[in-house]
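User: Show me an example of a complex going from sequences to structure tokens.

Assistant: Sure. Here are the input components:
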Amino acid sequence: AQKVTQAQTEISVVEKEDVTLDCVYETRDTTYYLFWYKQPPSGELVFLIRRNSFDEQNEISGRYSWNFQKSTSSFNFTITASQVVDSAVYFCALSDRPGGYQKVTFGTGTKLQVIP
Amino acid sequence: KAGVTQTPRYLIKTRGQQVTLSCSPISGHRSVSWYQQTPGQGLQFLFEYFSETQRNKGNFPGRFSGRQFSNSRSEMNVSTLELGDSALYLCASSLEGQGAWGYTFGSGTRLTVV
């Protein structure tokens, strides 16, 4: 069975602080995919990053960076120099390989509030 | 290119009524998946349609159904609405074979059942 745990329910930071959102996953599959989505108040899920299980290379994209560690089953997300526009709910998700019976599991989300 | 379009954006319905939600995928995307998002249960998979066929189904009662048309647009229907059906319903489209790897989500339909 798949499971995604985002232990941080809500985080508040002051603008320009760095913040890390934690994601721990469980799966028995050897091939799987990990995602981060941002959900602003408008409701749309905005795709941020995806990784497959064979690609542990960490990534930096502007102020965003991701740390994927299979050894600890974690896929953490860091925002550097946070801004008010980063305030949103962030979801980590896990899926098995694409196909007719693909299973996608979302974490419960972390609500980030960036205070000006 | 246009994104995933969901209509309507907001709905208020009465218990016992039925409702139909619509999702128009990105042009060329033939797979449409539906999710229900509630504060208590989070994001839960409802079903996936590909080429007018339901290919995958989540653990929801039979009151939840859907269909897909030849132009890949999809509708979901909820009959005999219950208060607990109040939620944000999101759809995601993707190219054939990509599944969640290629998801693009719409802005959702917020359903309130009173």
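The lines above are the inputs; the final block is the predicted structure for all two components together. The mean pLDDT of chain A is 92.
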